[in-house]
Amino acid sequence: MITLGTLVVALDLLGTFVFGLSGGTVAVRRGLDIFGVLVLAGAAALAGGVVRDVLLGATPPAALDDRRYLLVALGAALTAFLFHPVVNRLLKPVMVLDALGLGLFAVTGCRKALEHGLDPLASVLLGVLSAVGGGALRDLLVTEVPRVLREEIYALAALVGAAVVVAGQGLGLAEGPVLIAGVVAASGLRIVSVLRNWSAPRSPWS
Amino acid sequence: MITLGTLVVALDLLGTFVFGLSGGTVAVRRGLDIFGVLVLAGAAALAGGVVRDVLLGATPPAALDDRRYLLVALGAALTAFLFHPVVNRLLKPVMVLDALGLGLFAVTGCRKALEHGLDPLASVLLGVLSAVGGGALRDLLVTEVPRVLREEIYALAALVGAAVVVAGQGLGLAEGPVLIAGVVAASGLRIVSVLRNWSAPRSPWS
Amino acid sequence: MITLGTLVVALDLLGTFVFGLSGGTVAVRRGLDIFGVLVLAGAAALAGGVVRDVLLGATPPAALDDRRYLLVALGAALTAFLFHPVVNRLLKPVMVLDALGLGLFAVTGCRKALEHGLDPLASVLLGVLSAVGGGALRDLLVTEVPRVLREEIYALAALVGAAVVVAGQGLGLAEGPVLIAGVVAASGLRIVSVLRNWSAPRSPWS
Description:
The structure is a homotrimer of 206-residue chains. The first copy, chain A, is mainly alpha-helical and 206 residues long. Chain A has one domain. Helices cover 78% and strands 0% of the residues of chain A. In chain A, helix 2 packs antiparallel against helix 4. Chain A is globular. Chain A starts with a helix and ends in an 11-residue tail after the last helix. At the B-C interface, helix 2, helix 7 and helix 8 of B face helix 1, helix 2, helix 4 and helix 5 of C.
């Protein structure tokens, strides 16, 4: 029987792994060496959660306090380093991994904020920040404009996932299914929007 | 009758709005979509205050804890998105908005640091950090060298505004007028220096 | 007689100075004005320690709480500004200064983490973060890919220095010599690896 606590940690570690894989894959594509792969995978995997925990005042952050996060990030880096062709055979792997991490961290970040007593609006924002932080640092470190700015439906997808968590709590629904629904909503919206080329409105003046 | 507490919050929210407007305007000029505008406006509006509060250990930061900051940042983003030509008709709007935010955050950041018991020198530095943080993140996110580095009299203007606050407190002057004098000094110095093309010394060896 | 506490602060301030000098030298080379030199020197000198202290929840960070850090960073900026040719006559000055700062901060950061009760693995990671944080911010501010990603043996050198500290504590060795050995190991490995052009393995697939 999976408890709720186990589910939340599992989602968070899974987000750490897929973001780490996205960072490691970007690093290999750029021809970085093993240490560059470790750094970029670590930044992508851990930065979002670190930002979340620092903003909540929950220091030291889980990434430092709970050894599993580090080991998972390390595993993601080594997987990207050693099995690059396998990862690369996925359809648009960086996009898909990044979308999964986005949904997972939006949901776990929002939930942790609610647990710490932040109000719903602030909790949604913290979910979005946790979700976009790791990917933004990954992209900035290789001096690319982060995809949260370049890409259509991205911050919105994270926001939808976090909003599902807030709404589910407000309606008193069972938390486990709500968390999974949030991940599916956020990651699904992100992936579908890329594959279908959905675009968001631009300012009529731009 | 305006109390001092009201004045400080009003200055801080005004800084949030004008920095948000500067971020939103940069985003519209770059042709980003509505979510990119929200992200860049939010980053410019809130990052300086978040850095300030995290460094003071005042977590969660006001940007998350007090709903008005989020709403003001959102309003700035929507204003930039919808009324870009109006904003753009201002003289050098990004520069002017950025200069106003610079002065407002230098003053409120320095005051908050003094309140938390930091010594005068550290309080001035924290004022400067709050003032330059949001604009620096805005510029980094679109991979531009932040104007704190590119531009002459910028960090200096923030430093002057913060120093006015410290000096006013040291001299026991009425705090309301001192805060406003600090904003006028910092923002004014910044704007005049751009319009008159003042420049700071370069290393004789550069 | 030098006490251990004095030695640790001395190493930390020395790291602050050499990182500040590296930031100031980069700024002068780029033709930035005096305020740009101050900002880049300050960012390089102080960011690593600030990240370390924020992650440990030790706020306000030493860089704000202890005036010596600010004064040392200021001194480094002015030295770079005024004596650029002297600094520049050193062999690859930015690399050497950066390597020294890397070793010094890896060691003091790891030690501070152990003192705060983090486990060995997390303490090594925090040492690495303190060591690479200042240089990464310096490089990002001028929109360069940070050398922690560009360069071979860099994060590894910091990791070796931090590991020496953890191992020394585990073996119960006298702390003073262990700290110095860690600095020598990290900075030495970094410098030798650049001079000898050592390279780290790349992914067979990159």
